[in-house]
Amino acid sequence: xxxxxxxxxxxxxxxxxxFDWKRLFFMLLGLALFLIVYYCPAxxxxxxxxxxxxxxxxxxxxxxxxxxxxxxxWVFEVIPIGITGITIGVLQSMFLIRETRVALTDFMDTSVWxxxxxxxxxxxxxxxxxxxxxxxxxxxxxxxKTANIYLGCFAMTLALTLIMAHTAVAxxxxxxxxxxxxxxxxxxxxxxxxxKGLFIGMAYVAGAGSIITLLGAARGAVALGFYKEIVxxxxxxxxxxxxxxxxxxxxxxVLWGFMMVRFKPERKTIPxxxxxxxxxxxxxxxxxxREITALVIILSAIVVLGLRAFFPAMKVLDKSAxxxxxTVLLFVFNILTIKDFEETPWNIVLLFGGAMSIGYCLWQTGxxxxxxxxxxxxxxxxxxxxxxxxxxxxxxxxxxxIMNVAAIAISLPVAFTIAPxxxxxxxxxxxxxxxxxxxPFLLLVGAAPxxxxxxxxxxxxxxxxxxxxxxSGILMVVLTLFVLVIWPLMGMSTSLPVAP
Length: 500
Description:
By secondary structure, the protein is an all-alpha fold. It is 72% helix and 1% strand. The protein contains 23 helices and two strands. It has a two-stranded antiparallel ribbon with strand order 1-2. Helix 2 (21-39) runs antiparallel to helix 3 (58-76), helix 7 (130-142) runs antiparallel to helix 13 and helix 14 runs antiparallel to helix 15. The longest helix is centred in the C-terminal third of the chain and has 30 residues, at 461-490. It is globular. The N and C termini lie far apart (98 Å).
């Protein structure tokens, strides 16, 4: 046999040997789950405590099957996560779950555009050099211990979520963390424990910080609106922060400790880092006019977003429009070019387009409400604390599957209705649900910071999921401590007075 022929045989054998059977298995598993749920007989209706019936339609059942497919494909990355997002829209159309126009319009939802604007802000920090300036200054102050670098980055993440949306925080800090990681290893593409802990920890802490004020995410305002409408009580901006700040701060240190154990850095210190960071910061020279212009545009958008929480008249200004206005201005003032814009990670944008589409699909077909009533009905005769934690756990699971705002919208009205029968004060249900709604640690689609952290390529979606399982368990333990001990000591009512 000639050398050429032998080479062809060897190449063919190598191709066969390298065939990814695991990928094929999980691809077929996702499809099988979807088809089994889609074609199985109708499932029983759910009935709430007031006797209202929630029927699971064929479209609702199909949406549950579609989510199972998406979850398997997302976790095991059988195809790029953004393409899985597109698949969600395609299957809704092909199997008549929702109209094509509706399913695909969700990909252009305002929340998706908010993510685009946030990513552009992060891109701006990188392109102008602000990222390196901040990273070098931070490292010169923190020092050389990797444990301190973890804590410093996480603390900065939490602090920023007090005044801006956690999506924007993650997009802003992402390039900064990439610059820090570049000083940890000579190969920025190398996967390390330190890299995994740095980026996954940032995503988790962004969620923990976002629960503290109404500025961190939209879910808080939505939940307070439901509470006022159903319970007829107002909870103010600072009252929310009074109860949520201790949870967020405790979770900051808990997550820091968790990352130090789960992803213990390969090195305890980075020798010479402080001096190197100080030298590089000095070499950058004084801040440029371009950097100042970029900062003014971005900070102005952040200020306007923050003022919306204090001035009702400003609610007419949509948050997505505000952040996209800053995007436009960055191009008007030549801070960015079209070539820069082409570097936007569209894989992440499509991921969230698919997440919005499946979230609305579960909601609009009634599948999410059917799940909520079935789950909460299991706790209608349980002790008050078990009921409260059961609701919080349901929100925790759902907020990993669909938009956290939708998870709040489908669970709290049912929970507030059942609570008086069990003698549970709706206030503790509200706060417990907001805690878990803010910290989806399992799936990349659970929150934008999760997906932004994934762009570091330091971890797979499967690693994110397996890390999120114990992290979610720890969150529930911390929440139990607050429900049983800390919140009552702070003055929160957890039970309704017994009628004489």
